[in-house]
């Protein structure tokens, strides 16, 4: 157990996922979690479901906390930090999942040498299968490193990166689920085109993607080797692979990650100018 008091600022989908993960992992007790948000009916549902403390006042949530997790959009993070500024102190840890907002920008707004961590989780965290990259600000000590990692391990896998790599993380795993959804959708339509009922095609496509990813992860075998294992000479798979390669599937996915990364850098530069 972390046995810390945790404030979730912004109790939306990701905030709710973290609350669920923290409690399921028994990192702290429900009575030591505070959640803030703008929708009182949502907060009341969270309180009823998890037994946590809720409030519409961000300062009230933050002043109780050892760890403050900002599950809010980049467009409002400055105003929220200014709002909470008076109750923050260097004994606390601030964790942000806001895309593009650097630790340096947050440290400048907060002042007081408050430790700041920046994270990039993805939407799969809402089902406990997320990918989160974590970058540490200059005032964070070793115990706080471990606390942040444990929190996000409660909703999936965690990697530690230098902050300069977070734009690439955004392009790969942050935006990546959208690419995979398109692949699943296309596979479903392919099955339908060849005569499968849509419900059966959907079930097969989803399980194919899920099982393939699990096999790569659990076998620790390179995807190219696994691909070769199902590619027989003159068979159906090699012909399909040839078709995919002729249309540039590999290059398109690489370009998608690169394009999203470049856009993430552009947005980060705009956000941190102010």
Characterize the structure shown.
The chain is an alpha/beta fold. The chain has two domains: 6-166, NAD(P)-binding Rossmann-like Domain (Rossmann fold); 174-266, ProC C-terminal domain-like fold. It has twelve helices and eight strands. It has an eight-stranded mixed beta sheet with strand order 3-2-1-4-5-6-7-8, sandwiched between helices. Helix 2 links the parallel strand 2 and strand 3. Helix 7 (166-174) packs across helix 12 (249-271) and helix 8 (176-193) crosses helix 9 (198-219). The longest helix is centred in the last third of the chain and has 23 residues, at 249-271. The mean pLDDT is 95.
Secondary structure elements and their pairing?
Blueprint: E1 6-9, H1 13-24, E2 33-36, H2 40-50, E3 53-55, H3 58-63, E4 67-70, H4 74-84, E5 93-96, H5 103-110, E6 116-120, E7 130-136, H6 142-153, E8 156-160, H7 166-174, H8 176-193, H9 198-219, H10 223-229, H11 236-246, H12 249-271
Parallel strand pairs: 1-2, 1-4, 2-3, 4-5, 5-6, 7-8
Antiparallel strand pairs: 6-7
């Amino acid at each position: 157990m972390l046995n810390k008091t945790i404030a979730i600022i912004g109790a939306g989908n990701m905030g709710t996922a973290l609350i669920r993960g923290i409690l399921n992992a028994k990192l702290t007790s429900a009575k030591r979690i505070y959640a803030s948000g703008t929708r009182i009916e949502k907060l009341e549902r969270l309180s009823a479901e998890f037994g946590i403390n809720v409030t519409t006042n961000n300062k009230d949530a933050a002043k109780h906390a050892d760890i403050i997790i900002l599950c809010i959009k980049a467009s409002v993070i400055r105003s929220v930090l200014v709002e909470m500024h008076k109750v923050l102190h260097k004994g606390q840890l601030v964790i942000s999942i806001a895309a593009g907002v650097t630790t340096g920008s947050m440290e400048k707004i907060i002042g007081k040498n408050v430790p700041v961590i920046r994270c990039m989780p993805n939407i799969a965290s809402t089902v406990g299968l997320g990918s989160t990259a974590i970058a540490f600000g200059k005032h964070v000590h070793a115990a706080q490193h471990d606390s942040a990692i444990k929190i996000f391990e409660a909703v999936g896998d965690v990697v530690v990166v230098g902050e300069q790599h977070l734009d690439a993380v955004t392009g790969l795993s942050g935006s990546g689920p959208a690419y995979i959804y398109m692949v699943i959708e296309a596979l479903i339509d392919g099955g339908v085109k060849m005569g499968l009922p849509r419900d059966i095609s959907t079930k097969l496509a989803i399980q194919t993607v899920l099982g393939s990813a699990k096999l790569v992860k659990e076998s620790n075998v390179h995807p190219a080797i696994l691909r070769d294992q199902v590619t027989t000479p003159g068979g159906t798979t090699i012909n399909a692979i040839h078709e995919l390669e002729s249309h540039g599937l590999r290059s398109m996915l690489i370009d998608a990650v690169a394009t999203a990364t470049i856009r993430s850098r552009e947005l980060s530069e705009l956000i941190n100018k102010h």
